[in-house]
Amino acid sequence: MSAISRCETLAMLPRMSKLLFLACLVALLAGSASAFFLHSLVWATSLRVSQPWLLFLLPLAGFAVGWVYLRYGRQVEAGNNLLIDEIHDPTRIVPLRMVPLVLWGTVMSHLFGASVGREGTAVQMGGALADQVTHLLRLGNADRRILLMCGIAAGFASVFGTPLAGAVFALEVLAIGRMRYDALFPSLLAAIVADQVGLGWGVQHTHYAISQFPVLSAWTLLATLVAGALFGLVGKLFANSTHALSALIKRHVSYAPLRPLLGGVLLVAIVWPSGAERFIGLGIPTIVDAFSQPLPVYDFAAKLGLTVLSLASGFKGGEVTPLFFIGATLGNVLSPLLHLPFSLLAGLGFVAVFAGAANTPLASTIMAMELFGSEVGIYAALACVASYYFSGHSGIYRAQRIAHGKHRPFPRGLRLSELAAWKRRQE
User: Fold this and answer.
1) What is the pLDDT of residues 144-164, one digit of tens each?
2) Distance CA 371, CA 380 (A)
3) What would the CATH number be for the domain defined by 218-402?
4) Which residues pair with 415 in a beta bridge?
5) From CA 408, how far away is CA 393, in angstroms rounded?
6) CB–CB of 378/216 below 8 Å?
7) Is residue 379 classed as helix, strand or coil in its secondary structure?
8) What is the CATH code of the structural domain delimited by 14-200?
9) Is 0.85 surpassed by the pTM of this model?
């Protein structure tokens, strides 16, 4: 090793040591917050299932959440998009109030029967807690960006029990076509430690199993690509529908607390008469069933519609677990059509719809291998990459930047929310 190389290595050690220590601190905070959140969700879900009448209070719960966010949470209402914006263009510290607000709002949504997820809450808590560390230590923007990514990685990893996917997700979600490798080591350590912290607090993750892998052949590869394309189109439909309905509701209902109130009324009117309780909340039992038995062909569409309505009207929570539900049940429907095992296509749909909707094919592929084993790797990679391309330049995170277009060039750094206006100017 040359003298210059030795000097570079030695010069790197103090800063890297500091970042790794702070990543562990962020992981401890985020992992503990996620554990409290997941235990709260178990309580809320159990209570709702045992007391079905709670569904009728959903409109009032929505109004309460909307009013609290209007009164105290305007600065943090952007949620995950606020974190992505702060990493790209640092302006102000993410307020600590994001943590209790999003935690309380999400538990309320689950307790009374909205169809929402959980990853958004864990990611927001992780990012907000990480930013308090950067504020206390007066870190510069470069280190602040890295710790915010550590918070995202820790939140994602601890809520799903997938540390490798959590680390890659934090690097991949920021921009389409580019990853931030400067944060790889701290994010990886934060994800691993946060996952272990959650397990230490007694968190138990659901286990899914792919029971059968077909022999690799031209047909299985082609069928996997076809399925991946369909998963991507459904991911695009989910993202575009959520944004379009949210914009429509905001345009016609100016008072924010009324939006989830009206959305709650519609949800109750749909769910109670039809007996569609299995489509509200996380829907974990139905996801598990999708791996082992045929399900009704409409399950994925029902979950998609109720989740779009819940999120667009202002209920708090994440999109990812509903996307898992939509993907697993859609894969279940496609299984006999593509002559692939139920469990395999359910598993591929589980990760690939998310890959297309979030524009994170690498994190989704790694998640598949963490959840289902390394044998799924080839199939998951094909399905997730196909989904990524077929979902186009859409996504659930409007603050995502376009670093490299999927099919055509775009201005570097363009936000997904700015894409439509840019296209109109080009016409």
Assistant:
1) 999 999 999 999 999 999 999
2) 11
3) 1.10.3080.10
4) 401
5) 10
6) yes
7) helix
8) 1.10.3080.10
9) yes
